[in-house]
Amino acid sequence: MALSKKPVTGMKDILPGEMRIREYVIGVIRETYAAFGFTSIETPCVENIANLSSRQGGENEKLIFKILRRGEKLKLEEAQTEADVTDSGLRYDLTVPLVRFYSAHTNELPSPFKALQMGNVWRADKPQRGRYRQFMQCDIDILGEPSNLAEIELILATTTTLGKLGFRDFQIRINERRILKAMAAYSGFAPEDYDTVFIILDKMDKIGLDGVAGELTGHGFAKEHVDRYIGLFAGLQDTKDTAAAFQNLTDTLTLAGVLDGAVRDNLADIMDSVRATKSSDFEIVFDPTLVRGMSYYTGTIFEIAMPQFGGSCGGGGRYDGMVGRFTGKDVPACGFSIGFERIILLLMESGFQVPSQGEKVAYLIEKGVSGETLRTVIAQAQQERENGCCVLVVRMNKNKKFQKEQLTAEGYTQFREFYKNPLK
Fold this sequence. Notes:
Elements: H1 16-35, E1 39-40, E2 46-48, H2 49-52, E3 66-68, E4 86-90, H3 95-105, E5 113-122, E6 134-143, H4 149-164, E7 170-176, H5 177-187, H6 194-201, H7 204-218, H8 223-237, H9 242-255, H10 261-277, E8 282-286, E9 300-306, E10 311-318, H11 324-327, E11 333-338, H12 340-349, E12 360-365, H13 371-386, E13 390-395, H14 400-409, E14 414-418
Parallel strand pairs: 1-5, 7-8, 12-13, 12-14
Antiparallel strand pairs: 2-4, 3-4, 5-6, 6-11, 7-9, 9-10, 10-11
Helix pairs in contact: 1-4, 4-10, 5-8, 7-8
């Protein structure tokens, strides 16, 4: 039987054209984040299964690619549960590995620590447009900064990067987990029901306000609680002034005694500071329907909304309690992840071309050119490379016209032809 030429489902081969764009975007990301003081780190792609299954990753913990024990430790005949044969797994995000890394190396790192991490992650998810089972993540995180300076810096660094890549008119949607909880408390839901309420609320963009009300009622929640909850959102949808909507909602929750006014002021300060200092063309808007699926978020949460994609192209938030799971002592932490694969998809669909970074020259050498003649040609190519050119040295194909067309599509603008018979 012939071997399969196709990649595993949900994973893909990357052709040279896309690879050039990816490498360019990675370069822009690294350069921009470095200007904001973030430093690169790297963690293994394999993590201890206990860390990955610690109830911090939300729904992603159901999507782990688990790895069997090896050698003598794998005793299939004695196994009674999955835990008996599994001891590690491929990481499903970069946050859990980062927190483990920080917990292990705290004494070797500055405080606060501004980390940049890029790498592949794996989720056994259903593949769809812009979503794969193996994909690149690009995260920046600040650990050890308790104030909203962390959120402001993360949002500005991320939006500056998107602006440099040519994106305009996108939104940063922002919310606060404590506001979400205050809205649920105000409506009369019990604390143990908050997660269920938030899971349903997270479907708002797909099923609408009436759909959310129907699902909440279908779960057996009291009608008066559902009506009061839905009323909070209905009031927000009646105005296009998001600043006024934010003020009215938080005033209501604060007066009811379910929200600390400091939480409202903190979020307002983040939004005002970003608007006043941003360098890219985007809006930052309060969105009380924003939930974010990760259970480790404790405060501010945010997402990138791209009109070209019709969905989220990245997000993040504050997770002050996560380091404490490793060390027993909580450390303030906040992070933002760009949806790298979706950004690449949008650039490719728009026909994006990597800016020229020097002349690209192709040396086409006829078959038979060898010895001293070939060495002279290569030496000439070496000299052009030292002068800053990109020089490709290849043998000339029989169909030279088609070969040139292919190279032109790859950005080569000059061709030098070398023949065995110089009179050609």
